Description:
Keywords: Repressor, Transcription, Transcription regulation. By secondary structure, this protein is an alpha/beta fold. The chain is built from ten helices and 15 strands.
Amino acid sequence: MLASQRKKAILELLAQDKQVLSSELSQKFLISEDSIRRDLRELAAEGLLQRVHGGALPASAAIAPIETRKNVQSRSKQTVAAKAVKMIQPGQVVMIDGGTTAHELVARIPQDIAFTVVTHSPGIAVSLVDHPLVEVIVIGGRLFKHSVVTVGSAMIDVISHINADLFFMGVTGIHASAGFTTGDYEEACVKRALSQRAAETVVMASAEKMNAASAFAIGPLSLASTIIIDGEPDTALREACAKQQIELL
């Protein structure tokens, strides 16, 4: 079998099983694991998969610049945001992540609800200027232009003084075994720190983020109390959430 044919077959298996293992691929194609690892490296370089220890997972399509992401699965993001906004109650302290789904959430916040928003997204903060009853606290830091959010170690001390009711967290990938991932190391650290300061973490995920992974782990599925998705989760994700008592909406 030619290398190009083998790579095509690997991608087909990945689409079917949502993960591949180097050892199993080696046995299937009767070649060394070194050769399989080379195939996976080359496919990863093309953005077609995400390498992990022992194999590979589907690559997330949600790591493009924010202006590009605005047009990806927009209807799916609107569906997720419409469910998420119903969780906000008067008087709560709510942390809202950056990202396109978070912007859809903020666009649906009623004008007559009084609560406090904590965010490290300048865009989210500005979107709430015309909500007279919403108190807005902005966490500063270095601006990560790709996602238009602030990041950096100085933020962690500020975050440690917050006790929030909810944290609406954006991710680029959700996978039963890889958990929640994103495309930047510092952004992953900030998301993890925010999650640790909320009574409940709600992960909002449009369709392209399901059964996908990016390079940096935010944490396991157990970080979330609720995951809101558009569409039906596969058996592996549903079973993983049920085992850890995570609500799927």
